[in-house]
Amino acid sequence: MNMRKTFFFIICGIFFPIIFAPTEALAVLSDQRFGYGGSPQIAKDLNIPWFYNWGVTIPIVGQKSFMLVGKIECTNPDISALIGQGIKDEDDRGRYTRLEIVLGKFEGKPLTNGLGRGDYGGANVCVKVNGARKTFLQIATTLANTYPGSYYQIANEPDWYPYFTPQDYAEYYNIFYTQIKKYDVSASVMTGGLLSIDPIIYNNPAYFGYDLNNHYKWVDDFRNLYKTRFGSFPIVDVWSIHPYSWFDWIVAKNMIIDFRDIYLTRIGEVKKPVWLTEFGILATEGGVVHPGSPCQTHGCLSATDQMLEWNIIADDFMKPLINWMKSNDYVQKWFWFYAGETSNWSGGVNYVGDTYKLPSGEYNPLGVMYKKLAEEGAEKIPNCSNLTGPNTITLGDTATYNASFFSEQGNLGKKISIGKNEAFVANMTPTAGIFTWKPTQTGVYDVFCQAWNDGIAECRGNPAYVDKLPHYECAGPKAYMTVVVSSLPGDLNTDDHVNIYDYNLLVSKFGNPYTIFDYNDLVTNYGK
Fold this sequence. Notes:
Helix content: 25-40%
CATH class of the largest domain: Alpha Beta
CATH architecture of the largest domain: Alpha-Beta Barrel
Strand content: 15-25%
CATH topology of the largest domain: TIM Barrel
Shape: globular
Radius of gyration: 24 Å
Distance between the termini: 42 Å
Number of domains: 2
């Protein structure tokens, strides 16, 4: 039984709830770079550690997910109660007003603005896109407090459908980015999965009229217009791309190489993480075994042709592309499209990459291959987990940390490191198995464990510090944490004040054995 307990504390005459939630551990060790888009149950069945479902995706036991906020789609949930809860001050109200202006451009008219595929996703005209408003309001009401340190993707394929102008996406990105970081400084923010970088798109005038000599024009325009509007280029913690190809895995590989080696190098962000939040073959059923004349609808293939098509994709596309990605540091995480049956969508079209269970109770060859690739070599990856220590430190104090370390191969090396803005700052000094740190500057730091075995492999607890092989992300659980160093006890967000925003951060991490001290500091200095 999954039970939560709530206690109430009083600060300045106000009742504040403190929620205790159960601790949940990951399942069997597998490569943390693997993810699925679609069903969390399919991901869990196949031991894939990450998943998401194109929205506010709540993690399930043993898995991780990221949040997709601001997705433009024709939905109209009732958000009247959320408005009062999710807008906490005038800054929030100002951002929500700006959000209304952008969303108003999509409502009551064709979503594509004449530049994308008008037949994609159902009705051409949306009356309301309240789902996007809802996710904005959820940031302050639930997401930041309940899931601190999460990854957020802002919209999905904003450069294709439904099409954002680069200027509107610059405004949109700033609205969501600022709101997310306000309530969770430890969160990471991604661009919407970019598709205009794909030759299937930028070489086809039916989709876009971009400059064919610069297939990064939309991204360039977004960044430049952002700088014009806000005074600096957008801060992108993770670049999310969708490098689809027809059948040739080399095409996808070259897109990935080009994006990092050419584009990210050109803009000075070559060290930023890159995630494929969608990748696969952009073709419908039958498109591989009958190129040029696919039968398209689900079930149209003979049993022999269906099995042949799955095996061709698994052996000739999925396997070589993933093995290439596993062998280098171009991509930090990838999500196969799609865990489930797209034939259940309106229209009945089935995409060739679908992973689902067959009547026999077994998964199709795509699922079998993806599981195999995720687990291959995972036993060679050392692991560290259960990092413990204070989430806040007052400048001048010394803090102690510890973690569990594991390796099945070779001599086990242990380390707990400190980083800031994705750069290493220092390593803690171990004494009798306990690691200590006395910070010399205030700020927000990443503290994470590392483990290695005779140079065969090394895991790093925070994915932002995984650079190249043989370095991997540790499976954990709890392999890293965000630590705030402040000059004023109780100032958890280092803004030199102790107020409701510090309380919100305290609630988000309550359950850590050190948070009772944070609570005492917060009560003592509240209002300063």
